[in-house]
């Protein structure tokens, strides 16, 4: 460390001497033989000093510019993050408003039954697809057996009720069974939950009339049988069809219309309207 201190002292002293000499040359020598001689002798040194001074100035300028660029980049990055957050929030609000509007439209379209809108507050702690909890219960007039739907289709039925909450068993649960019909042909059957299919957010259609043709893409909806689900609510569409050796249907895999992994608001159908 002392070596570098001494070295820098020498450099600084030399720079001061050269600067003083340069000043003296410029201001005192004038245009005469002595001044010319001094300029001639000191020209290489002054040239080197000028180069060093320029390089040092450029270096300081570079460092300063880099600091300014870094500050600008940090400011731009912060602004970019803020704008992304605002865009994300705006998109979230837009999606929520759209969901709520669709739910309101559905509620207004159901005139034969009384309905209650509710929000999903949790999923089953064991298997997310089995049950969901909503924030309305007996205090809102809900009861066991009430059908639960969204603007997309059927969610399930209420199987437990508290004062301010209800547990909804979904159509993906293995205990679930919904009487359905194929929209295209009118053939009736039963949509049931299946543990293996439920892991992929699917269920199965079985007990379909043998005389009823069914193809991939067919839409199935509630038939109204069983007294829980009113007729005409979409369950989902046919993903694949499995048949036995005689060509008779064994079962069809159904892709539900409801996105069970992203449930937010639901509509409970809790009785005959007034």
What is the compact description of this entry?
The protein has helices spanning about 1-30, 35-110, 195-200, and strands at about 115-125, 130-135, 145-150, 155-160, 165-170, 175-180, 190, 205, 220, 235-245, 250-255, 265-270. It is α+β, with helices and mostly antiparallel strands.
Distance between the termini: 94 Å
Largest sheet properties: 6 strands, antiparallel, barrel
Q: Give the DSSP E fraction (strand runs of 2 or more residues).
A: 25-35%
Average of the residue pLDDT scores: 80
Q: Looking across the biggest beta sheet, what order are the strands in?
A: 1-2-5-4-3-12
Total of DSSP H or I helical runs spanning 4+ residues: 3
What spatial form do the alpha-carbon principal axes imply?
elongated
Q: Could you state the order of secondary-structure elements as H and E?
A: HHEEEEEEEHEEEEE
Q: Which structural class best describes the helix and strand composition?
A: alpha+beta
Q: What is the quaternary state of this protein?
A: single chain
List segments where confidence is low: pLDDT < 50 over at least 5 consecutive residues: none
Helix content: 25-40%
Signal peptide: 1-24
Domain Rod shape-determining protein MreC beta-barrel core: 120-269
Protein name: Cell shape-determining protein MreC
Keywords: Cell shape, Coiled coil, Signal
């Amino acid at each position: 460390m002392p070596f570098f201190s001494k070295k820098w002292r020498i450099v600084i002293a030399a720079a001061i001497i050269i600067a003083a000499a340069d000043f003296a040359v410029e201001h005192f020598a004038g245009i005469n033989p002595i001044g010319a001689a001094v300029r001639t002798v000191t020209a290489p040194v002054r040239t080197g000093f000028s180069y060093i001074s320029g390089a040092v100035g450029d270096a300081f300028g570079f460092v300063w510019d880099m600091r300014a660029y870094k500050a600008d980049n940090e400011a731009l990055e912060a602004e970019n993050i803020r704008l992304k957050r605002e865009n994300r929030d705006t998109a979230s609000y837009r999606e929520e408003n759209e969901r709520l509007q669709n739910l309101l439209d559905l509620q207004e379209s159901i005139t034969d039954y009384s309905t209650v809108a509710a929000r999903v507050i949790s999923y089953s702690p064991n298997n997310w697809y089995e049950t969901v909890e909503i924030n309305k219960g007996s205090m809102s007039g809900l009861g066991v057996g009430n059908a639960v739907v969204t603007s997309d289709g059927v969610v399930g039925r209420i199987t437990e009720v508290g004062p301010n909450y209800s547990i909804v068993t979904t159509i993906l649960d293995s205990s679930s069974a919904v009487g359905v019909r194929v929209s295209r042909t009118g053939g009736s059957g039963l949509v049931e939950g299946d543990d293996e299919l439920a892991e992929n957010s699917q269920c199965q259609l079985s007990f379909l009339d043998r005389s009823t043709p069914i193809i991939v893409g067919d839409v199935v909806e509630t038939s109204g049988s069983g007294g829980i689900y009113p007729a005409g609510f979409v369950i989902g569409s046919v993903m694949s069809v499995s048949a036995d050796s005689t060509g008779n249907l064994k079962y069809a895999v159904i892709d539900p219309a409801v996105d069970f992994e992203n449930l937010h608001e639901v509509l409970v159908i809790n009785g005959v309207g007034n």
